[in-house]
User: Which sequence fits this backbone?
């Protein structure tokens, strides 16, 4: 179809506008502020606080909490925002090897934002924790990763009251939550049932007692000591019912044995599904007859073949060989370590938490996979 030119009746108006274009622009320039442009923007600064990335941190203080638990307080090089209940990954050079582990944050979110300090509380158990307990000293420099994990209050999903169930060093995230409630950075009611073996094993007792308010209550439960000042025995369904209101969300953090017991108690109360959140524990060794396999690892253009003990995870085999590979939760939950399986058989510790896409495209989580044969995997590059 032939193009038809449409005559503009008021075309001369455009001409007028065009004539005014340059003077208008000059006037706008003249009226504009002569202040220099800001060097930083608020939104960028906020993003940096939300996602500071790996950062160097100086160990500023070590406090003995119980006979086998210490709090390590770090001075951060970059401010960090986290939700009370989250963890950070701590990385240090241990006897010439780079080792990292996730630890729950025990300080409050505002302490990090205002004072640039962050604390983790660690029980002496396991390779890195033992090293920290015996060797770390004030002035040491370590690497702290981004705050991670979903063990925190979610107003959209959770009830207004949380019944927290802590076992042993599982108190750490709840201590952070109790401080956050007191300082106003978290807004929910926490009823904490805290199980310890004896009175001496209760961590942060003085601090927790000082935080008690309308929104925070703590009940100590001793399993190995009869003491009239406290509840005695285990955290049973009767005990939960005694302190919990009608509607509540359960958040639990403690050893695997506590979870197994708790699952039965909660099932008997008809509580499960979304009403229960459990913080995952790092995957440990499995109890099987020892066998050693060859593990071939591709990282970028490099190929390594290392030995893998079938009692330990594929992640541990790579770390033992000195390979720097990514990891965060070490419990199958974050997906940070996911690696493409080229060949080989493996077993997963506990439930398979891989995303559907990982399953479909043949990815495994080395942090919770034990080798059952020689294996070959492609691993994303680790810490730079
Ligand atoms: S480190 Fe989180 S899934 Fe492996």
Assistant:
């Amino acid at each position: 179809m032939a193009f038809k030119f449409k005559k503009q009746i008021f075309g001369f108006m455009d001409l007028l506008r065009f004539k005014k274009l340059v003077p208008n622009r000059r006037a706008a320039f003249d009226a504009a502020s002569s202040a220099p442009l800001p060097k930083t923007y608020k939104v960028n600064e906020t993003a940096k606080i939300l996602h500071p990335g790996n950062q160097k941190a100086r160990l500023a203080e070590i406090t003995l909490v119980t006979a086998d638990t210490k709090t390590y307080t770090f001075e951060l090089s970059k401010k960090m925002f986290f939700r009370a209940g989250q963890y950070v990954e701590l990385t240090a050079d241990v006897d010439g090897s780079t080792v990292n582990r996730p630890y729950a944050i025990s300080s409050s979110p505002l302490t990090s934002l205002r004072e640039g300090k962050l604390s983790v509380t660690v029980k002496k158990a396991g390779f890195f924790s033992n090293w920290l307990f015996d060797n770390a000293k004030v002035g040491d420099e370590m690497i702290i990763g981004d705050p991670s994990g979903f063990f925190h209050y979610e107003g959209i999903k959770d009830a207004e009251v949380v019944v927290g169930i802590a076992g042993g060093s599982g108190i750490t995230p709840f201590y952070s939550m109790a401080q956050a409630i007191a300082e106003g950075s978290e807004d929910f009611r926490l009823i904490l049932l805290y199980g310890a073996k004896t009175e001496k094993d209760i961590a942060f007792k003085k601090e927790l007692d000082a935080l008690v308010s309308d929104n925070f209550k703590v009940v100590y439960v001793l399993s190995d000591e009869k003491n009239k000042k406290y509840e005695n025995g285990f955290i049973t369904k009767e005990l939960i019912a005694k302190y919990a209101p009608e509607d509540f969300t359960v958040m639990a953090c403690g050893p695997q044995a506590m979870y197994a017991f708790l699952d039965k108690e909660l099932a008997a109360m008809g509580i499960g599904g979304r009403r229960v959140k459990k913080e995952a524990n790092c995957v440990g060794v499995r109890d099987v007859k020892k066998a050693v396999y060859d593990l071939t690892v591709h990282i970028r253009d490099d190929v390594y073949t290392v030995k893998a003990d079938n009692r330990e995870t594929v992640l541990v085999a790579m770390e033992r060989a000195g390979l720097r590979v990514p990891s965060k939760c070490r419990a199958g939950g974050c997906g940070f370590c996911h690696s493409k399986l080229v060949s080989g058989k493996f077993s997963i510790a506990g439930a398979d938490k891989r995303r559907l896409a990982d399953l479909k495209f043949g990815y495994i989580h080395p942090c919770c996979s034990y080798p059952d044969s020689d294996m070959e995997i492609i691993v994303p590059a680790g810490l730079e």
